[in-house]
Amino acid sequence: MRFFGTTWVAHDGGYGARRAGVAAGSLLAAAAGCFVLRFAYEGLAIADVGKFVNLLVVVMFAICSALAFRRTWEGFTRRHDPASQASMRGLMTIGFIGSLLAYFFRCLTEAPGEELHRKEYETAREQYAKRTARRTGNPSKKKRKR
Fold first, then answer.
1. CB 103 within 8 A of CB 112
2. 111 Cβ partners below 8 Å, 6+ apart?
3. Rounded to a whole number, what is the distance in angstroms from the first to the last CA of the chain?
4. Each residue of 68-116: pLDDT tens digit?
5. Which of 61, 51, 68, 59 is nearest to 102 (CA)?
6. Rounded distance between C-alpha atoms, residue 28 and residue 19, angstroms
């Protein structure tokens, strides 16, 4: 929601353009990340570390990216507890391409995290309405049943 401010509430103020920009930016960043990983893989090939290590690195990045995609996608609809976020920080860093792709695909339907923020926003509005609701009339003048 960092790039959207409050435009996600009523979908105004360039919301569509911002969504398109975030989608393009995340896809471009994922492509740049793949390009950097390609250089890293070529570095391993030049170092001649062996086919097993090359395969291990590719599988590690694929698994971490898949897990990061899933975790990021779930994070758009529910909050993760801080302890699990801290424990998954390394995996999410390695699988950054999966997170960027999750942002891209979510931007095709809504702002990333909009559903979660909308639920929290509506809950907060309901709680505010309950707190500020005033009684009508003077309770001491209430008719009593005999």
1. yes
2. 1, 3, 4, 8, 15, 18, 19, 22
3. 59
4. 999 988 888 888 888 888 888 888 889 999 999 998 998 888 877 777 8
5. 68
6. 14
Q: For residue 101, what are its two tokens?
A: 């792709």
Rg (CA), the chain: 24
In the block, tokens 């740049």 appear at 32
Q: Is 15 in contact with 7 (CB distance < 8 Å)?
A: yes
Amino acid at 21: G
Token couple for 72: 């990021």
CA–CA gap between residue 66 and residue 99 (Å, rounded): 9
The dihedral formed by the CA atoms of 47, 55, 40 and 107, expressed in degrees to the nearest 10: 180
